[in-house]
């Protein structure tokens, strides 16, 4: 049955190429959108030919919970609608479950998302010759490259950064732990920052905290907001950018790059993890593959 389901997607893509004459990039975008839905349905053991409108609503709700931008959600809806219209046209299904599915409006209450170019501009605007700029660059790389909450960032410990394994151990809400792949740019930025950090007079109790202020104490959440606001002004970016903007940009850009929804969900910490040991053995190679393949900061490395 799995082969039959995948065959439907393959036939749909052939239809787009041969009869619609769409470009390779457009067809690839459709493939990614339909594949996300297929993976979601496969986990719940729902056949494509048995999908109901309610199933699609739950799928879109998951995108919303992940903080995916309205623009990206709209693109996914467009791809899904085209797919089910094709299935109905071919008489594979009798009714189109996506007929009443609405395209998210840009006015939805979702956080703003930075473009890949805006992120590149922000990260590239720091002066690597200044210790404070080196620290801030590392902060931006970790926020965007790992999708951390601001509380997770300021509490991140050196002992939770595994450079050789290319992961960080994050303590999220409810003291739940998760592993998130660490990109090459993030590892490089952290390594350069640690050289300057080791020269600080570190306050007692902060010895293991990764990101410190000039007085050797842990950075506050408010200071992270201030750093981001100041750098946006330097770069002429007029969006309302917060630490959470980087988190949602992380999720949106991975989705647009074709990453699996489950991988994004796990890296954001939206699923409970019973033990770190089980998580490492089951998923670390899979998650690393997803982020190295689909995250913009890795794509060109």
Description:
It is found in: Cytoplasm. The chain is mainly alpha-helical and 301 residues long. It contains 13 helices and three strands, in the order H-H-H-H-H-H-H-E-E-E-H-H-H-H-H-H. Helices cover 58% and strands 4% of the residues. It has a three-stranded antiparallel sheet with strand order 1-2-3. Helix 6 runs antiparallel to helix 8. It is elongated and about 70 Å long. The model is unreliable at 272-283 (pLDDT under 50).
Pattern of helices and strands: HHHHHHHEEEHHHHHH
Number of helices, where a helix is a run of at least 4 consecutive DSSP H or I residues: 13
**Structural class by sheet pairing and helices:** mainly alpha
Q: Helix fraction?
A: 55-70%
Radius of gyration (CA) equals 21 Å
Largest sheet: 3 strands, antiparallel
Please count the beta strands (DSSP E, at least 2 residues each). 3
Mean pLDDT: 84
Q: How big a fraction of the residues is strand?
A: under 5%
What is the strand arrangement across the widest sheet?
1-2-3
- The unreliable regions are 272-283
Distance between termini? Answer: 39 Å
Query: What is the general shape?
Result: elongated
Pfam families: Phage_int_SAM_1, Phage_integrase
GO molecular function, one term: tyrosine-based site-specific recombinase activity
Organism: Candidatus Gallibacteroides avistercoris
Domain Tyr recombinase: 109-292
